[in-house]
Amino acid sequence: MIDSHVHFWKYDPVRDAWITKDMEAIRKDFMPEDFSLVLQKNYIDGCIAVQADQSDKETEFLVNLAKENPFIKGVVGWIDLTSERREEFLQKYQAEKSLKGFRVIAEGEDPGFLLQKQRLEGISALRRYGYTFDILLRQNQLSDAVQLSEKLPSQPFILDHCGKPDLKTNNLKDWKFMISELAQNPDVYCKTSGLLTEGNWKKPDERSIFEILDFTFSQFGIQRVVFGSDWPVMLLGGNYALWLQLISKYVSQFSTEEQQLFFSGNAVTFYNLK
């Protein structure tokens, strides 16, 4: 089993100002030694470490953690897509075998952020170096993801957190439309991570989460949906065992081979893991 979406950080109240006071459970360090306990208790074999800070130091930090911890099977780092030194960095990163792709946090930006000319050129450059791109957007921004996949049809994309459906209101009409459009591109995958924190943190709604999973699997198919947790952020809505129990209950409807694709095979394929 591979968890495709895990974060590590040494908590800094200035740098990590996005972790607000109502997120007390995650206002502290979360390092590989903390996650190794989660791995052992839940029979997880490895993970993908995904950037949480937008800096070159973050990429270096995660790559170094991967060198020290074999269970980190791959890294999704950060890169300045608009930098004139972009190609220089991409060439340098070729030596880091754990580095599989990049992500830019666009969920707090205005619509069209990822579609700006320089960023499009930056994302386009990733494919030439064999890198993937994680798309992090909210439900009301998903038209950007659709346009991105249309403009760069051969770039390997993966949508984080099922596109952050609004489980607080359950107004999912626009989400379903955009997901159906996005899933038409065979180079776009989708992570089931983060769903515990898209609704009521104190009482996750299994039925609403299963509705999201129903539609996600119906559109992307079993070969393009990937298991992930969003640890430690997901701790705001529960614990790891709860999420694993919930997702295991849902995928029990699939064959053993299909479950293997979901829990590990699709991550291995998308991120080119060894």
Reading off the top of the CATH hierarchy, the class is best stated as Alpha Beta
CATH superfamily: Metal-dependent hydrolases
Overall morphology? globular
CATH topology: TIM Barrel
Structural class: alpha/beta
Strand tally: 8
Largest β sheet strand count, sense and barrel closure: 8 strands, parallel
Summarize the structure in words.
By secondary structure, the chain is an alpha/beta fold. The chain has a single domain (2-271), classed as TIM Barrel, CATH 3.20.20. Helices cover 39% and strands 14% of the residues. The protein is built from nine helices and eight strands. The protein has helices at residues 32-42, 56-68, 86-93, 117-128, 142-151, 173-182, 206-220, 240-251, 256-271, and strands spanning 2-6, 46-50, 72-77, 99-105, 132-136, 157-159, 188-191, 225-226. An eight-stranded parallel beta sheet has the order 1-2-3-4-5-6-7-8, sandwiched between helices. The two termini are 13 Å apart. The mean pLDDT is 95.
Reconstruct the topology from this structure:
Elements: E1 2-6, H1 32-42, E2 46-50, H2 56-68, E3 72-77, H3 86-93, E4 99-105, H4 117-128, E5 132-136, H5 142-151, E6 157-159, H6 173-182, E7 188-191, H7 206-220, E8 225-226, H8 240-251, H9 256-271
Parallel strand pairs: 1-2, 2-3, 3-4, 4-5, 5-6, 6-7, 7-8
Helix pairs in contact: 5-6
